[in-house]
Amino acid sequence: MEVVILAAGKGTRMHSALPKVLHPIGGRPMLLRVLDTAVSLSPNAIHVVVGVGAEQAIALAEEAYPHAGINWVTQKEQLGTGHAVREALPGLKQSDADNSVLILFGDVPLISRSTLQQVIDHCGPEQVSLLTTRASVPEGFGRIIRNRDGDVAAIVEERDASMEQKRINEVNSGIMAIPALRLRAWLDALDTGNDQGEYYLTDIVAMAHADELRIRATVVDETEVIGVNNKSQLAFLERHYQMGITNTLLEQGVTLLDPARLDVRGDVDCGRDVQIDVNVVLEGQVRLGDGVSVGANCVIKDSTIGAGTKILAGTHIEGAEIGKETSIGPMARLRPGTVLGDGCKIGNFVETKNAVIGEGSKANHLAYIGDAVIGDDCNIGAGAVFCNYDGANKHQTTLGNHVFVGSNSVLIAPVTLEDNAFVAAGSSVSSDVPAGSLAVARVKQRNVPGWKKPRKK
Ligand code: UD1
Ligand code: MG
User: Fold this and answer.
1) Which bound ligand lies closest to the C-alpha atom of 204?
2) Can you tell me which atom of ligand 1 is nearest the CA of 155?
3) Which residue from 25, 86, 291, 354 could staple onto 337, CB 3.0 to 4.6 Å apart?
């Protein structure tokens, strides 16, 4: 079995500069989703027909599947789905008589592996296999024409369909498996005698019927095979996909205050008794340990959150590893390279980046902690800023254990504060502080008695 994925279409109805098949569902471009499923079938070869936006599509897919050996076929002019498959023909191996060619569409992204396996199993030297669905809104799709015996005899595109044919609600998903040895002759016989003046792949069904091959239609639920031609279908499919994910999470015992207001764009792995409030977005690889709670309006990307940790409302976390029983937010921002120990507290308006913070350390309000290694049980006061950037390079700040950084202090890196160092509020610390020392680095206060405030001239 070889797979041909059609992905060259202009996607005119999307009204977008981004090629249609690169629009994402659940954060993953549709073409990659189709490739994921194609690869899982271990075919002899995968051919992808690309046209508009080819370079972008190739770059993305080769990054995701560097070893898949995808055969890229460029269709310069988009003359129809039949033409697209014909362009792929020279690359097909087609050696065995019982080989089949599975046609997938880059804009039908949620097709499952098990359904495709059925489609393949129903294809044989004398049998074409189709995937169809009963559409609640059949407009825009090719209609499945069955003869009196109920056998599929043809597919008629919407624009070529009679009033009577338009009433048929069984539609073509576009996905089919075709006996390889028959394919060339049928494709060569295609013409453009239709309303769009294109070579329709769907016309080979009538040819197969005329050649007395059997046409097996597997009918599946429409949500699995619904195609994306416009933004409204993209939005519909996105909601359907998200509903599937949230259902799985609920089945696993995750508490979702509103399943319709959680979006997962990647893979999420939850422990027991995880609770997620409304308007949360989880992206990339996210792991939430036992008893983690995520407040409203949080975004968590590529991060691991330890058991019992509370992420309070409005918090943004990316590329972070967070220990157990920690409290973060509300409105904190943890950027890549943040590693928090157990029992830490990162409060409102605190930003961390590339910062390793030890057990029980706290930064409760308004601080920037960048390029830092901080020991256990430290306290970073309100308004503390770790100056990590000299205008050209980044430098590190190192704190031992039990260090106290007073409010509104500036730590100018590279600088080290040893165990039990204490920085007086409002200090500008530019040289190391030895263990157990107090650093006061600010102008001494001077009081002027009887001070008169200036008068307006
Ligand atoms: C197609 C089917 C229709 C089916 C529907 C399901 C045909 C003639 N029609 O219509 O029966 O109900 O899909 O979604 O096959 N493409 C190319 N090169 C081209 C034209 C298209 O690679 O020259 C690709 C597109 O990128 C897309 C796929 O083929 O991934 C389908 O093309 P599209 O224009 O969306 O066809 P539909 O009108 O949806
Ligand atoms: Mg389409």
Assistant:
1) 1
2) 11
3) 354
